[in-house]
Amino acid sequence: EVKLVESGGGLVQPGGSLRLSCAASGFTFSTEPMHWVRQAPGKGLEWVSYISSTSRTIYYADSVKGRYTISRDNVKNSLYLQINSLRDEDTAVFYCARPHSNAMDVWGQGTTVTVSS
Amino acid sequence: QSALTQPASVSGSPGQSITISCSGTSRDFTDYDSVSWYQQYPGKAPKLMIYEVSNRPSGVSNRFSGSKSGNTASLTISGLQAEDEAEYYCSSYSSSSTPFVFGTGTKVTVL
């Protein structure tokens, strides 16, 4: 079964940092690019970041450039998102997703990040 | 970055057909046939319903169909059922500074 499982979310104070993880199974992770997508409470989906299979190509949404860092470990079949200088507006459910045919065909269940003092 | 524009809500009675529109700029659509559609229930992860404008993944009902004309893509749900009540998002690759963009989302209500 193809599966993505996010972890690492939690309650963090403004200005803090967090590292989200996404564990992949059931497919050859090392050959697949990956996305992070977030969804603020009651809001729509927002694409956050993309990383190619080799980590050679990385993109970020303008809203997170400079504070978010995407990375991956193809030996551990894991995707990561480092979030620094957390702000209230980073409060969201974060999903990892696998690209397929210019779409995202597999999604994790999401991990919740709450920024609050 | 600018999101693709969708109507906030669309409703229909069981058995009817409804269409959700998704409007963007030439940079969002013209260069790529990469429009996809997602269904999301409250508290759940999105599910891919349509990719590359009009293709259905295995397991998705043929009541769901997609199309595109110029800078507007559409998702049509025919034979509307109670289980179709959910939020729907379009998305596309873009040649703008943000390479991937989602729509604003449409709440589908089955009357």
Strand and helix map with partners:
The complex is a heterodimer of chains A (117) and B (111).
Chain A: E1 3-7, E2 10-12, E3 18-25, E4 34-39, E5 45-51, E6 58-60, E7 68-73, E8 78-83, E9 92-100, E10 103-107, E11 111-115
Parallel strand pairs in A: 2-11
Antiparallel strand pairs in A: 1-3, 3-8, 4-5, 4-9, 5-6, 7-8, 9-10, 9-11
Chain B: E1 9-12, E2 18-23, H1 26-29, E3 36-40, E4 47-50, E5 64-69, E6 72-77, E7 86-93, E8 100-102, E9 106-110
Parallel strand pairs in B: 1-9
Antiparallel strand pairs in B: 2-6, 3-4, 3-7, 5-6, 7-8, 7-9
Describe it.
The complex is a heterodimer of chains A (about 120) and B (about 110). Chain A has strands spanning about 5, 10, 20-25, 35-40, 45-50, 60, 70-75, 80-85, 90-100, 105, 110-115. Chain A is an all-beta fold. In chain A, the strands form two sheets. In chain A, strands 2, 4, 5, 6, 9, 10 and 11 form a seven-stranded mixed sheet that branches. In chain A, strand 9 (about 90-100) and strand 10 (about 105) form a beta hairpin. The mean pLDDT of chain A is about 95. Chain B is mainly beta. Chain B has one helix at about 25-30, and strands at about 10, 20-25, 35-40, 45-50, 65-70, 70-75, 85-95, 100, 105-110. In chain B, the strands form two sheets. In chain B, strands 1, 3, 4, 7, 8 and 9 form a six-stranded mixed sheet that branches. In chain B, strands 2-6-5 form a three-stranded antiparallel sheet, with no helix packed on it. The model of chain B has no long low-confidence stretch (mean pLDDT about 90). The interface of A and B includes residues 46, 61 and 102 of A.
